[in-house]
Write a structure and sequence with these properties.
Alpha-Beta Plaits; elongated; four-stranded antiparallel beta sheet; 6 helices; alpha+beta
Length: about 200
């Protein structure tokens, strides 16, 4: 194949022109590719925003649902407590008993076992608002413990997990249990708040 030297000498970028029949479709194709790229990016952002909105709506539903968020566990004065973060009870002592009952009900509902609970009302200067502390020792498999923690923290009244420790259960597992997930023992310090007139 021979290369025309005269063509190479005479070739100049100024002489290079693009035929209109080729230029117009090329510009349209570039424009369409750019639009498709922008639409894909916008769609991805919209899908992410929708997923975030749905997750927030679900969480808001759980928080406002109170008993529904806790797996159907009912509390005293449920109608008032659905949107109230405080424990509904006449006195701080009955509020402590109510929180103890609620913790036990959540654990049993999620197929866990309550080994011990102890409720105490923190005595402070403000008699109209008291902190209730619950020391609880629970037992269950990892999925059960996770559900218990979720149900405790996402319902009403508000229960806060101040301290948490996890270790293998003390009792020995049988052959059947060894093949499954091991039993765990969780020690929790929980707190809730009672306010008079809540």
């Amino acid at each position: 194949m021979k290369f025309d030297v005269r063509f190479a000498r005479n070739f100049n970028m100024r002489n290079l022109t693009l035929d209109r029949r080729v230029a117009a479709p090329a510009l349209v194709a570039c424009g369409l590719a750019g639009m498709i790229f922008c639409i894909a990016i916008a769609q991805e952002s919209l899908d992410a925003a929708r997923a975030e909105r749905d997750a927030k709506a679900e969480l808001a539903g759980r928080l406002s649902g109170g008993a529904a968020a806790r797996g159907g566990v009912q509390t005293t004065g449920e109608a008032e407590s659905l949107h109230n973060p405080f424990v509904a009870a006449e006195t701080a002592t009955t509020a402590a008993a109510e929180v103890d009952r609620l913790v036990r009900a959540i654990v049993v509902k999620t197929n866990g076992a309550v080994l011990s609970t102890q409720a105490a009302v923190e005595q402070g200067n403000d008699a109209t608002m008291r902190r209730i502390e619950i020391q609880a020792v629970l037992e269950g498999r990892i999925e059960t413990i996770q559900r218990i923690l979720f149900n405790l923290e996402t319902g009403a009244p508000a229960i806060f997990i101040d301290d948490f420790a996890l270790q293998p259960a003390e009792r020995s597992s049988g052959k059947k249990e060894k093949a499954q997930m091991p039993l765990l023992q969780a020690s929790l310090t929980l707190s809730a708040f009672w306010r008079s007139g809540s």
